[in-house]
Write a structure and sequence with these properties.
12 helices
Length: 347
Amino acid sequence: MSAPAPSRPARSGPSSALSSTPSPVTAPVTAPVTAPVTVSPSGTASGTGPATGALDWRLRFAFLSVVWGFSFLLVKVGTQAFAPFQVAFGRVLFGALALLAVLLVRREPLPRGVRTWGHLTVAALLLNTAPFSLFAYAELSIPSSLAGICNATSPLWGMALSLVALSEDRPTRRRFAGLGLGFLGVLTVLGAWQGFAGIDAKGTALALLASLCYPIGWIYVRRTLAGTPGSPVALTGAQLMVSTVQLAAVSALFTSPPTGFPLWPTLSVIALGALGTGMALQMQYGLVTEVGPTTAQMVTYFIPVIATTAGVLILGEQLHWNTPVGAVVVLAGAALTQARSRAPKPA
């Protein structure tokens, strides 16, 4: 669930590399070369290519959904032993190492140019550093399942922002309906009719703010890095390297060194980075090439389902009826905001 930096990002569901990312994470996320990519816990990518076996891509699709869905549980476990900034730092560090290993094997260079690295610095802040830290802080006080559902609001924020920032994204009645339906789902998840009783307002606000980072980041990337030479892996790896430096500095300034490295929290952070940010993004690129961006992007809508299931079954988080019902409404609204009108058929 991390948010990479594509050359011409596709519209995503949630963040990352990638968000984040996403979500996300992001990505997204949710989400890098001549082929557009989007990341985030929920990141997506774009491109075309031949299919190479239906069973194989379905298995990888399921694995990707599970990895990104479990990312919120891994964040929760990581914060049991490490400060939120340290969890975010470990996430981008091991994600960067995973992608740099791929670049080393492929003998692909990192992107060049001061201007490119300057834009990647901003992209890293918006798509990795900020949302990953915000989600980690949010999960100090809210369940991982709620964080996963908040991440699913990223397409809703994206649609609202695109109406202002991206003139080519023309609003339609369907997309407006999706926006309203999605935020109605958010109110259902939060139990608005009960005065938001039992919901930590600060933690929920941080999670929603994290999901907002992804579309802001992608609008920036779309305006500044479209057409940048370099492979998706090289651009994403460079972005995660910059985010690692950012979070190393922030962690050194605002947190104390960890007193120990307990087994499960440490493994959670390593898996969060190496699998959820590194390996998952590589797998997402392959899915986009094999089955196209539309099908690959559907992974976004499985993430909150898996995040909720993992939180309830493994962490014992409580689940009330309004949480799954609201999540379904959020996902339905998000799907509508991503709908595009069909081009008229030629006579």
